[in-house]
């Protein structure tokens, strides 16, 4: 039995139920291949782990539950010999945070939270005419990362499209630093909002264009990048070269089509382009899907830098572990509504509540967590 990322769209309770079934099947004699980028799952479930890197077999190790196994696997995955490195240095920030994160990261308390982004009573329709967003309201402050989590198909992509002007609203208002974004022009939105969609090549970048043209797509209007109606190619090339160096983008030919780049380098290019204008709001959907552990750690670092620089960061995630590692607050989305707010804690009580909310159950609020709109 081969399973490829089987917990990607499951609640914590569903994931644990799946593990019970898999352990029973193994006892009954089934051979099971469990493919996952979540080291916590691999270590807790598997008897042996095989590490692949760049299409090649690196090592196969027995898993016994001893301390340090996750760090050992991470070193094999990213190809570093760093025996004394911390979990974060190894790209283990996600797993490390979900294990050790027993206290909430500091963020403005609800009573003094000054919303940079204010979303009120947002409604929007899907392609078939049904309501996919139903009364969504929330705020994000400067210097704060808010994660919206939920099982796939509960309105997360439509929320991102609504906030970036790509989907027409049925009703509701969106304010960023006091300016109305609902009904604003694409130019005005792009000056203030960075958007890194989940589909890097289909929506974020143009696969057939080279790096320079992709880099210019959302910022050709910046001072210095144009002379009247014409592009300033020299300035654009200099800007791109600086971005390649700053974001450590590995590319042989900057004028080759973007489709030839790896997923990690595509994501770095997207981040470089979107963050170049110092946006007030950064919206990112599933930012590390398909990336190796080293590239994932790099992306996490850049998002934290944007937060620390004063931007409001909205993460739309289906991976709860990643949300727990990055977010200052979590909002749970179900069938187009925000059912509740939770702190980013990996305590049994909190995980149970998040899982129930992701499955659509109403729960009582935790101490220190606000209940979202019903």
> What fraction of residues sit in β-strands?
15-25%
Strand order of the largest sheet: 10-13-14-7-15-16
User: Given the C-alpha coordinates, what overall shape results?
Assistant: globular
Report the span from N to C terminus: 41 Å
Give helix and strand order, one letter per element, not per position: EHEHEEHHEEEHEEHEHHEEHHEHEHEEH
Overview in brief:
The chain has 13 helices and 16 strands. It has 374 residues and is an alpha/beta fold. The strands form 5 sheets. Strands 10-13-14-7-15-16 form a 6-stranded mixed beta sheet, sandwiched between helices. A 4-stranded antiparallel beta sheet has the order 6-5-8-9, with helices on one face.
Your description of this structure?
This protein has helices at residues 12-27, 39-45, 69-78, 93-100, 156-163, 186-192, 200-204, 211-216, 233-246, 263-275, 293-308, 320-326, 348-358; strands spanning 2-4, 33-35, 48-53, 56-62, 115-125, 131-141, 144-149, 169-176, 179-180, 193-196, 226-227, 230-231, 281-285, 312-317, 329-334, 337-342. The chain is α/β, with parallel strands linked by helices and 374 residues long. The model is unreliable at 81-105 and 365-374 (pLDDT under 50). The strands form 5 sheets. Strands 10-13-14-7-15-16 form a 6-stranded mixed sheet, sandwiched between helices. It has a 4-stranded antiparallel sheet with strand order 6-5-8-9, with helices on one face. It has a two-stranded parallel sheet with strand order 1-2. The two termini are 41 Å apart.
């Amino acid at each position: 039995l081969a399973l490829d990322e089987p917990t990607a769209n499951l609640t914590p309770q569903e994931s644990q139920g799946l593990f019970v079934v898999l352990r029973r099947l193994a006892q009954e004699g089934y051979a099971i291949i469990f493919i996952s980028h979540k080291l916590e799952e691999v270590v807790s479930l598997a008897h042996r782990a095989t590490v692949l890197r760049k299409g090649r077999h690196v090592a196969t190790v027995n898993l016994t539950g001893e301390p340090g196994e996750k760090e050992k696997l991470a070193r094999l995955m990213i190809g570093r010999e760093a025996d004394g490195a911390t979990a974060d240095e190894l790209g283990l920030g996600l797993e490390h945070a979900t294990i050790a994160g027993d206290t909430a990261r500091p963020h403005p308390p609800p009573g003094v939270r000054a919303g940079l982004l204010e979303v009120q009573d947002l409604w929007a329709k899907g392609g078939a005419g049904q309501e996919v967003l139903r009364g969504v309201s929330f705020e994000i402050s400067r210097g704060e990362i808010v994660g919206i989590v939920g099982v796939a198909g509960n309105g997360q992509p439509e929320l991102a499209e609504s906030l970036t002007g790509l989907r027409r609203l049925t009703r509701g208002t969106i304010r960023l630093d006091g300016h109305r974004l609902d009904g604003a022009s694409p130019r005005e939105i792009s000056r203030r909002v960075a958007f890194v969609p989940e589909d890097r090549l289909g929506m974020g970048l143009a696969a057939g264009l080279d790096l320079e043209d992709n880099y210019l797509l959302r910022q050709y209007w910046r001072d210095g990048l144009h002379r009247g109606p014409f592009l300033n190619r020299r300035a654009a090339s200099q800007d791109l070269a600086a971005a390649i160096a700053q974001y450590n983008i590995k590319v042989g030919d900057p004028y080759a089509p973007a489709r030839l780049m790896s997923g990690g380098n595509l994501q770095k290019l997207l981040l470089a382009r979107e963050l170049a204008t110092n946006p007030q709001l950064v919206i990112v959907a599933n930012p590390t899907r398909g990336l190796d552990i080293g590239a994932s750690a790099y992306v996490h670092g850049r998002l934290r830098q944007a937060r620390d620089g004063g931007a409001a960061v909205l993460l739309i995630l289906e991976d709860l572990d990643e949300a727990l590692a990055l977010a200052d607050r979590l909002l749970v989305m179900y069938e187009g509504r925000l059912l509740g707010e939770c702190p980013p804690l990996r305590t049994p009580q909190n995980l149970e509540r998040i899982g129930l909310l992701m499955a659509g159950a109403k729960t009582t609020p935790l101490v220190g967590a606000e209940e979202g709109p019903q």
